[in-house]
Design a protein that fits this description.
The complex is a heterodimer of chains A (about 650) and B (about 100). With about 650 residues, chain A is mainly alpha-helical. Chain A is built from 26 helices and four strands. Classes of the chains: A mainly alpha (about 650), B mainly alpha (about 100).
């Protein structure tokens, strides 16, 4: 048990050392941090080996909260799903830590950065290893906190600190749904422990229905919907995705780790973990699938026209997360997690590579000011190519297998969503290659002073890139579907004990599956070709199209103005106006008014009472005598 | 023999006159005199009962009361002198420093 405890504790120790002694350690804080995550990685591999050998852990360390019937312990659950997440988190965290040594070199917050990264890794590991909802929620909140700290890392820049606050507040809205779901789980099942809750779904308690605002729905549906609200906040789905593009204000390693590989996948992980709950509710599954599908295509459309290199990748992340939820929503839990794994590697790679580009261009992020970098930063170029090939789902790179498995499962469930997914894939290919062509090809549009300093990144940055590129190529091969080569879907079979079985087609659908695979590769190549034509061959055409369809172009460029709408309704309307109203009417008029009124009332009463004091002694004597007579009378009456 | 209730009645009437005097006279000397009148009314009552009950206790008590009344009159007059010097008046309705 001890070695499993070390998995989260080593990064936490790294956080303490780098956080408390960073001022004295300065650059050496990175060594401590890397040691922390690498140790975590080693023990995660050990856990993987254990699970492969059949050992599953579900143990409580100590009893944390005991109030009445509420018994919550701090405990770990290590099953197949957990080790997959552990490997993803620790591998990416280690590589990104190493990369950051180069990227954050010279930054005055160097040690603080590594402290925050360690803290984030700790919380993420707590999240994936928790064996009950509340402990998972601790990790959930913790990664949200670290996201805030890291997005607003360069806090002196107002846009960065605003983005950090936005991320945290939007996350909080989702967390509210999560907490409500947790409370409902406790009220229904009497426990928050995963194993116990999932066992209890077959009891009558689970079959209750709740009447909510006139609509009667099963309690499980309500729980799943509330939990999913939390997932939309954390994993940037509609309607709570708005924080992720702004989160690009943070340093690029942060975008890679948190907003591509780990934190945003927490929502996907949570839904997968709660699969036994979700499969009982068709409504909830449909909601998950539809939200995922719509988000996938919605974000892809925005990504088509963005000019900032990181923003394109950010919208791509939102879109790919939509694909993961799409897969989960149709019951293909293993496929969703598979896509999560491959996506972590190639999206992390793409972000880090874009960081390398930005580093080479001394901070330039606008693609309109890039171009013809292909020969100047070769390594960055090639890893970018591999990452993009993986993202767009071209055989035999990683993204092909995972995305295809999702699309195959969706095809069997919901034709309309499959079409949405395919269109999204077309757009994904288009904007990804658009990014490559704008950045690396064509005539140089780089500023002259910047152009002199263009240089490849140091080895400490390029080696992690190359490792990630290697994984982007190969990691898909652990999940080659049975249709192509039988009995080699190692990944799917590995996760099978965790998820309730999803149906699989028989032999006759094998041809259909291969046919669809070829179709999606063709779609991806079509997107590639379209981007090639528009951005390499006839480079004047995109501007012409933008002019001709100015309305749509503006809408997409301004992200459908969703931020402005949210600002108008919630920030200006709800917060400012409501707060102002509550202050002037509620606070000043009603509460202060009441207090002032009661003080004045006492004053008025005493004014009247004052009149009793005339200073005239004979009157006092008279009243005394009168009182005496009255008392005597009362005495005799009582007798 | 004079019936008892004549004395008691006399005592009551004198007492009432005394009270009315205390409560309604302006001059502080008159108030003092009214207080003395009340004391003497009580004395008459005591003597009447002492004679009627053939018990000497009443008459002895009257001696005490007269002594006390005399002492009290002396002290009261001394206070009145000080009061009159301080406030410059002997009319009680003008002593209104306690007026709130």
């Amino acid at each position: 048990m001890l070695k499993y405890m070390l998995i989260p504790l080593l990064p936490f120790t790294g956080f303490l050392i780098a956080g408390l002694f960073g001022k004295y350690l300065k650059e050496r804080a990175a060594t401590v941090a890397v040691a922390g995550v690498f140790g975590s990685f080693v023990f995660s591999v050990s856990a993987l080996i254990d699970v492969l050998g059949g050992t599953l852990i579900d143990e409580n360390l100590y009893s944390w909260i005991t109030i009445g019937s509420l018994n919550i312990s701090v405990g770990f659950q290590i099953d197949q799903l957990t080790v997959v997440m552990l490997m993803v988190v620790t591998t990416l965290s280690t590589l990104i830590h190493i990369y950051s040594i180069g990227y954050m070199h010279g930054d005055k917050g160097f040690a603080r950065f590594f402290a925050y990264l360690e803290l984030f890794t700790f919380f993420m590991l707590v999240l994936v290893m928790a064996n009950n909802f509340l402990l998972m929620f601790v990790g959930w909140e913790g990664v949200g906190l670290c996201s805030y700290l890291l997005i607003g890392f360069w806090y002196e820049k107002k846009s960065a600190s605003d983005a950090g606050i936005k991320a945290f507040v939007v996350n909080r809205v989702g967390d509210f749904g999560f907490v409500l779901g947790m409370m409902l789980i406790f009220v229904t099942f009497g426990t928050l422990d995963f194993t116990e809750v999932f066992k209890a779904v077959s009891t009558p308690a689970a079959a209750q229905t709740i009447d909510l605002l006139g609509i009667e729905m099963s309690v499980i549906t309500l729980i799943c919907l509330l939990l999913f609200v939390g997932a939309t906040g954390k994993s940037a789905q509609i309607p709570l995705y708005v924080w992720l593009p702004d989160a690009m204000e943070g340093p690029t390693p942060v975008s890679a780790l948190i907003h591509a590989a780990t934190m945003v996948t927490a929502g996907v992980f949570m839904v997968a973990r709660c699969a036994p709950l979700f499969i009982l509710s068709h409504t909830a599954m449909n909601v998950v699938a539809v939200v995922g599908g719509v988000t996938a295509i919605f974000a892809a459309t925005i990504g088509l026209v963005q000019n900032d290199i990181k923003r394109v990748i950010a919208y791509s992340t939102i879109s790919q997360l939509g694909y993961m939820f799409l897969g989960l929503g149709v019951g293909a839990f293993a496929a969703g997690i598979f896509h999560l794994t491959t996506h972590a590697f190639f999206k992390g790679l793409l972000f880090l590579a874009s960081g390398s580009v930005i580093h080479a261009l001394s901070g330039e992020q606008d693609m309109r000011k890039m171009g013809s970098l292909r020969s100047k930063i070769k390594i960055t170029y090639w890893v970018f190519i591999f990452g993009t090939l993986a993202l767009t789902g071209i055989f035999p790179f990683a993204g092909f297998f995972s995305k295809d498995e999702i699309l195959w499962s969706v095809y069997g469930s919901n034709r309309a969503l499959w079409v949405v997914g395919v269109i999204g894939a077309l757009m994904t290919a288009f904007y990804s290659f658009r990014l490559i062509f704008l950045t690396f090809y064509g005539k140089s549009r780089i500023d002259h002073e910047v152009e002199h300093h263009v240089h490849e990144s140091p080895k400490i940055m390029t080696v992690p890139l190359m490792i990630l590129a290697f994984f982007s190529i190969t990691i898909g091969w652990i999940g080659i579907p049975g249709a192509l080569i039988s009995h080699i879907n190692v990944f799917g079979e590995f996760l099978a004990p965790v998820f309730p079985a999803a149906h699989h087609g028989g032999e006759e659908s094998r041809l259909l599956e291969i046919g669809l695979m070829i179709f999606s590769v063709v779609v991806a190549l079509a997107g590639w070709r379209l981007a090639y034509v528009l951005y390499v061959k006839k480079t004047s055409v995109p501007d012409a199209i933008a002019e001709k369809f100015k309305g749509i172009y503006d809408l997409l460029l301004n992200k459908y103005r969703v931020d402005e709408v949210y600002n108008y309704i919630f920030v200006d309307g709800l917060v400012h106006k409501l707060a102002k109203f509550l202050h002037t009417t509620g606070d000043v008029k009603i509460i202060d008014g009441f207090i002032n009124w009661s003080a004045a009332a006492i004053g008025r009463t005493s004014e009247q009472g004052r009149k009793l004091q005339t200073g005239f002694i004979q009157e006092y004597a008279f009243i005394m005598g009168l009182g005496f007579v009255v008392l005597m009378g009362l005495y005799y009456v009582m007798k | 023999m004079v019936p008892l209730y004549w004395y008691v009645l006399l005592s009551a009437v004198l007492f009432t006159i005394g009270i009315v005097g205390v409560l309604s006279r302006r001059n502080i000397f008159i108030i003092l005199m009214s207080i003395e009148l009340m004391l003497n009314a009580a004395n008459i009552n005591l003597i009447a009962f002492s004679h009627y009950l053939q018990n000497l206790t009443g008459q002895i008590f009257v001696i005490f009361v007269i002594t006390v009344a005399a002492a009290e009159a002396a002290v009261a007059l001394a206070l009145i002198i000080l009061l009159a010097r301080n406030r410059g008046t002997v009319y009680v309705d003008e002593f209104n420093l306690l007026k709130g």
